[in-house]
């Protein structure tokens, strides 16, 4: 990765977050401790394949080295505080405590094609989208790569099954945590770790234009999903404050650049809000906006949030909207609602704990 890891440039008195290090960085860190390069491979495997919770569990490492690591490194582990399991479809909503006590949420969704985990990239969010529970209370802090990985590791261990798909679409704006996101993606797809294919990873953004363009230049094979939610700049401004900084035309140009640079089809997320963005005119405007693009539209009947007045449209309205897009040859699906009998919307479970 292009950015230097502050974790290994700090003084040795500061514990190093070794779970956030790439293998070359871990090798360099251990060299400073006088260790041979092969040790990095052993430790990397303990961290990312076996996902141990303590240095003591690294049984093929000498006791002396384990003692040194106890003093010079930290082994980031997050703790499960609450798990809600849907009786309808088996969806699991996890509330995790970070090492500093802040709370984050993750969701496990079981599909026929495998287990998908939706993770958070920040504790809280500064984007303040009107229909989102995650934004209530603002941004607390961004997550380290280790804390993003840990959500997947702990859920995989909890269910005793492989995680095959990862969606960075929980609490937070992933591109507002850009450098940590890149490092996380590298570690997640590393052949010596979980080795999840980049094509099985989706990253969501509300439309941070410079970061979309920078991400395109990385030429990764991930899917980028834009939280669009409105067919016009005027309406987007009502729902998403970020539209004041980056207007819709700029955002769409950045999405076109992403597709042209990576060859990866964009996904557009569109939360349907009753009486706000679900009219016939909205559907026509959306067709005009997306009609000539190689893309996929994900229609999401909005999750009701206690603190907001937004409601879902009825099924007839949703189907009319979908049919209009399909008649204009736009690839569209209605997101299957999962976990509605638990705190399914992003940020709702965390909010119950005052975070």
TrEMBL record:
The lineage of its organism: Bacteria, Bacillati, Bacillota, Clostridia, Eubacteriales. Gene3D superfamilies: 1.10.150.530, Aldolase class I (3.20.20.70). Residues 111-341 form the Radical SAM core domain. The active site is at 105 (proton acceptor), 346 (s-methylcysteine intermediate). Specifically methylates position 2 of adenine 2503 in 23S rRNA and position 2 of adenine 37 in tRNAs. Reaction proceeds by a ping-pong mechanism involving intermediate methylation of a conserved cysteine residue. GO terms for molecular function: 4 iron, 4 sulfur cluster binding; metal ion binding; rRNA (adenine(2503)-C2-)-methyltransferase activity; rRNA binding; tRNA (adenine(37)-C2)-methyltransferase activity; tRNA binding. InterPro entries: Aldolase_TIM, Methyltransferase_A, RlmN_N, RNA_MTrfase_RlmN, rRNA_lsu_MTrfase_RlmN/Cfr, rSAM, rSAM_sf. Its EC number is 2.1.1.192. It catalyses: adenosine(37) in tRNA + 2 reduced [2Fe-2S]-[ferredoxin] + 2 S-adenosyl-L-methionine = 2-methyladenosine(37) in tRNA + 5'-deoxyadenosine + L-methionine + 2 oxidized [2Fe-2S]-[ferredoxin] + S-adenosyl-L-homocysteine; adenosine(2503) in 23S rRNA + 2 reduced [2Fe-2S]-[ferredoxin] + 2 S-adenosyl-L-methionine = 2-methyladenosine(2503) in 23S rRNA + 5'-deoxyadenosine + L-methionine + 2 oxidized [2Fe-2S]-[ferredoxin] + S-adenosyl-L-homocysteine. The keyword Iron applies. This is Probable dual-specificity RNA methyltransferase RlmN. S-adenosyl-L-methionine binds at residues 172-173, 204, 227-229, 303. Its cofactor is [4Fe-4S] cluster. GO terms for cellular component: cytoplasm. It is found in: Cytoplasm. GO terms for biological process: rRNA base methylation; tRNA methylation. The keyword Metal-binding applies. Pfam families: Radical_SAM, RlmN_N. [4Fe-4S] cluster binds at residues 125, 129, 132. Belongs to the radical SAM superfamily. RlmN family. Keywords: 4Fe-4S, Cytoplasm, Disulfide bond, Iron, Iron-sulfur, Metal-binding, Methyltransferase, rRNA processing, S-adenosyl-L-methionine, Transferase, tRNA processing. Binds 1 [4Fe-4S] cluster. The cluster is coordinated with 3 cysteines and an exchangeable S-adenosyl-L-methionine. HAMAP family: RNA_methyltr_RlmN.
């Amino acid at each position: 990765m292009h950015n230097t890891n502050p974790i290994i440039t700090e003084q040795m008195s500061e514990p190093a977050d070794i779970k956030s290090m790439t293998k070359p960085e871990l090798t360099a860190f251990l060299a400073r401790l006088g260790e041979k390069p092969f040790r990095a491979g052993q430790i990397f495997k303990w961290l990312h394949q076996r996902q141990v919770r303590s240095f003591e569990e690294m049984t093929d490492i000498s006791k002396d080295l384990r003692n040194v690591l106890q003093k010079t490194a930290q082994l980031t582990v997050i703790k499960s505080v609450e798990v809600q399991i849907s009786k309808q479809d088996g969806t699991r909503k996890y509330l995790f405590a970070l090492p500093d006590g802040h709370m984050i949420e993750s969701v496990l969704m079981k599909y026929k094609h495998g287990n998908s985990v939706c993770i958070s990239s920040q504790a809280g969010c500064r984007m303040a989208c009107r229909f989102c529970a995650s934004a209530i209370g603002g941004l607390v802090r961004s997550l380290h790569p280790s804390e993003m990985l840990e959500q997947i590791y702990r859920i995989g261990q909890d269910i005793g099954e492989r995680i095959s798909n990862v969606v960075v679409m929980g609490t937070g704006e992933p591109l507002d945590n850009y450098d940590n996101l890149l490092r996380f993606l590298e570690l997640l797809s590393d052949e010596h770790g979980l080795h999840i294919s980049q094509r099985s990873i989706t990253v969501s953004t509300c439309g941070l234009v410079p970061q979309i363009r920078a991400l395109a230049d990385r030429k990764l094979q991930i899917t980028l999903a834009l939280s669009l939610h409105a067919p016009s700049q005027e309406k987007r401004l009502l729902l998403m404050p970020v539209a004041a900084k980056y207007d819709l035309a700029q955002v769409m140009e950045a999405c076109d650049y992403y597709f042209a640079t990576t060859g990866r089809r964009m996904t557009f997320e569109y939360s349907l809000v009753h009486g706000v963005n679900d009219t016939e005119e909205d559907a026509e405007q959306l067709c005009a906006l997306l009609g000539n693009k190689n893309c996929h539209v994900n229609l999401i009947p909005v999750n009701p949030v206690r603190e907001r007045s937004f409601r879902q449209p009825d099924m007839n309205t949703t189907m009319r909207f979908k049919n209009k897009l399909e008649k204009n040859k736009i690839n569209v699906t209605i997101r299957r609602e999962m976990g509605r009998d638990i705190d399914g919307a992003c940020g709702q479970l965390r909010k119950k704990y005052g975070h």
